[in-house]
Design brief:
The protein has 215 residues and is α+β, with helices and mostly antiparallel strands. The protein has a single domain, classed as 2-Layer Sandwich (Peptide Methionine Sulfoxide Reductase, Chain A), CATH 3.30.1060. 23% of the residues lie in helices and 18% in strands. The protein contains five helices and eight strands. The strands form two sheets. It has a six-stranded mixed beta sheet with strand order 7-6-1-3-2-8, with helices on one face. Helix 3 runs parallel beside helix 4. It is globular. The protein starts with 49 loop residues before the first strand and ends in a 15-residue tail after the last helix.
């Protein structure tokens, strides 16, 4: 399933295309409805909705952070910004697909703005760790914003610059932000047991955590 465009994007040194796993043609079967919100997980979504794909570490906690916000139609966890078609969780964790663990956020822009979503994004993780998030390390844990239009791209870049200033001002010695900002590519739904995982498993692990610095 394609969420975005068909433009080839060079993903960078973390995912050489010629070393990526081959994957498969069949998409991952997932539930029809969001476990918490009760809305369609795979769409079709209401015409008024917009979409954004975000990577901020383990997608279990990241998804919960966004489905809890007002103005959200649905969320889903999956894999994006890589090469392997329809990858499995184990394949993504191998580092041989180039994919990131991401959250698809479908939202009503008249209720929650892209700026508000990006503020939650920046404040909910450490965007300076490169291929790690907390104690979770691997290419699939990198920080990323995957935009669908020029407004999202512009705000992603401007809020990145603003947050870098805030980090330098409040956390002496903080590193440079490593968040990648790319056009939204193919979004592959993760296995059904990953969808809304922390609602199904309230005691499950979640390493999501910010730096205490506001945008």
């Amino acid at each position: 399933m394609i969420w975005g465009n068909d433009v080839f994007i060079e993903k960078g040194p973390h995912a050489p295309a010629n070393e990526a796993l081959k994957g498969r043609a069949a998409a991952m079967p997932v539930a029809k409805r969001h476990y918490v919100l009760g809305t369609p997980l795979q769409g079709p979504y209401p015409e008024k909705c917009q979409q954004l794909i975000l990577g901020l570490g383990c997608f279990w906690g990241a998804e919960k952070r966004f489905w809890s916000l007002p103005g959200i139609e649905t969320t889903a966890v999956g894999y994006s910004a890589g090469y392997t078609p329809n990858p499995t969780y184990e394949e993504v964790c191998s580092g041989q697909t180039g994919h990131n663990e991401v959250v698809l956020v479908v939202y009503y822009p008249d209720t929650i703005s892209i700026k508000e979503l990006l503020t939650v994004f920046w404040e909910s993780h450490n965007p300076t760790q490169g291929m790690c998030q907390g104690n979770d390390c691997g290419t699939q844990y990198r920080s990323g914003i995957y935009y669908f239009d020029e407004q999202q791209k512009s705000l992603a870049e401007s809020t990145k610059a603003q947050y870098q200033v805030a980090l330098k001002r409040k956390l002496v010695g903080s590193g440079a932000i490593t968040t990648e900002i790319l056009a939204a590519d193919t979004f592959y739904f993760a296995e059904n047991y990953h969808q809304q995982y922390l609602a199904k498993n309230p005691d499950g692990y979640c390493g999501l955590g910010g730096l205490g610095v506001n945008l």
